[in-house]
Amino acid sequence: EVKLVESGGGLVQPGGSLRLSCVGSGFTFSWYPMSWYRQAPGKERELVASIGISSLPQYETSYAASVKGRFTISRNNDVNTVYLQMESLKPEDTAVYYCKGPDWGQGTQVTVSS
After folding, report:
1. Minimal CA–CA distance to 62: which of 95, 29, 84?
2. Sign for the pseudo-dihedral over CA of 93, 70, 102, 46
3. Confidence (pLDDT) at 92
4. C-alpha–C-alpha distance, residues 27 and 106, integer Å
5. Phi and psi at residue 77, in whole multiples of 5°?
């Protein structure tokens, strides 16, 4: 059974940082590109960041324009985990963040508010 479990969400003040983690199981993690999506209330789910499967010379990554320069996606295949480091958080980053591989995770809430 494919499982993706996110963690690391929470309440943070504007300008703060959070690191999300997503642990995969039930599939060969290193074979899959991985992505983070988010969905804010009343809005469609949107792609935030993606990371490829080849580390030569380095993992290929891509970002939504709204988070480029503030968020960093990375992966550690030794522990079947993909990360999303989020810096300089803004209220508009408030959303449920989902990990995506061969399936979806259950999501973790990120709230940016003073």
Report:
1. 84
2. positive
3. 97
4. 17
5. -70, -20
Residues 69-103 pLDDT 10s: 999 999 999 999 999 999 999 999 999 999 999 99
The span from the CA of 46 to the CA of 2, in Å, is 22
- The strand pair at 71-76 and 81-86 is best described as antiparallel
What amino acid occupies position 104? W
The encoded tokens of residue 52 equal 């490829």
Provide the residue type at 82 as one letter: V
Q: pLDDT tier at 22 (50, 70, 90 boundaries)?
A: very high
Give the integer Cα–Cα distance in Å for 25 and 37: 19
Token match 């009343």: residue?
42
Confidence of residue 57 (pLDDT cuts 50, 70, 90): confident
With beta carbons less than 8 A apart as the criterion, state whether 75 and 92 touch.
no
